[in-house]
Amino acid sequence: MATLKEALKEKLTEKQIKLVPKSFDIVGSRDRAVAIVEIKDELKSKEKVVGEAILGICKPVKSVLKKTSERKGIFRLKNLKLIAGERNTEIIHKEYGCLFCLNPRKVYFSPRESTERLRIASLIQPKENVLVMFGGISPFPIVLAKKQPKVYKVYSIEINPAAHKYALENIKLNKLEDKVFPMQGDVKKYVSKFKNKFDRIIMPLPKGAYEFLGLAIKMLKGKGWIHFYYWSREPNLFKEGEKLIKKIAEENNKKVKIANEKIVLPYGPKTYKIVFDLYFF
Predict the structure, then answer these.
(1) How many domains does the chain have?
(2) I need a labelling partner for 240 at 20 to 30 A (CA). Which of 30, 48, 69, 260 fits?
(3) Are residues 82 and 220 in the same domain?
(4) pTM over 0.90
């Protein structure tokens, strides 16, 4: 398969070729997929040409979307503009034997976090009661329940009604109605209902999740695990997060062990999504 730059050699100047993105995300399957690409402002007049080239080199891709904003609002969505292909951008994405129906223009989903979802799934123990905060279309809950079928139950809370609708559909698609239980609304309204309920909590929202860490601690059984995601910059990637975690643990009269900390994926120049595997007791 030709690279995007190779496909555009005859259509752009040398200067423009240097601005062409080296990579882009593909969400979907071999039958039907959507490409999501970041195009520099200097190439704006050629965005359709770039989009058509992506359609040409990636046969499963039926639509090309261009990012036009950073993630914003309570639904964590980027504005995505259709620059080539079909208007219908709903697809079914396949990941480790799981199926996820979604429209990337309406919900947040990152195919690049598949390895992290699988890693967390490998840590789940039989009979654990698990909560995924900010659950989206339920990729974490579904992967967890598929890979650890002896998990007791996986609950998921998501504020975006469109994502919740897809979560319900995806749970049926994966035949997990008896294991995964999605709820729509603000996490804060569920704290009293779920106090002291969970063995493990996953918090996959990196920006602003620290504001909910104290609430997550309250929903743990006397002791348990929280996988806390954070957004950080070099050179001291983990220091700020560590200080926050210890402060919030102290405020909630808990001790905390940071069992693991790692980079999940890059967000931008010297900026990363990171994760802390925390044991509170």
Answers:
(1) 2
(2) 69
(3) no
(4) yes
